[in-house]
Amino acid sequence: MPRRHQGGWIIIASFTIALLLTMLPLPTWAQAFRPEWITLVLIYWCMALPGRVSIGWGWTAGLMLDVTLGNLLGLHALAMAIVAFLTIKLYQRIRVYPLGQQALAILILVAMSQLLILWILGIIGATPGSWTYWLPSLSSAIIWPWVFVVMRGARRHFRVA
Question: Are 10 and 155 contacting, i.e. CB atoms less than 8 angstroms apart?
């Protein structure tokens, strides 16, 4: 008898919560520090369940983000799909790192995603004008240990397989 997947609704709920956190209004001074919530959730699920959450999930999450933020359609989708691909290729290495080293890997993955988005924005002539564009990479790396612990707790509690 084939093994039945459990807890698919937890995966969808975590992406929904990440999307809501992305849309959450922040004071003007704090907007530059907003972590890349959807990217963090995508990286977690690609590391935890690489056979179940992969490039298609990244593409879909990126399209949801593009529609929500009103960006060029496919901008975040391409970046998320590439992040999902790299995470799945490297998940066995990243997963065994201590949380501090995982945070460094997250910093690199999120910065790479932002670099790709910046490149595409440069092609269409809509580049951001300040160095604060890179702050979400740093804040995502800083918040990664807490995201990892919360997501792992939810995955274990609801027995997501």
Answer: yes
Structure token pair of residue 52: 């179940």
Is-contact 83 112, C-beta < 8 A?
Answer: yes
What are the extents of the domains in the chain? 8-157
Closest CA to 41 of 138, 154, 133, 120: 154
Q: Name the nearest CA neighbour of 110 among 85, 89, 134.
A: 134
Model confidence over 34-80: pLDDT tens digits? 999 999 999 999 999 999 999 999 999 999 999 999 999 999 999 99
- Report how far residue 145's alpha carbon sits from residue 148's, in angstroms, rounded to the nearest whole number: 5
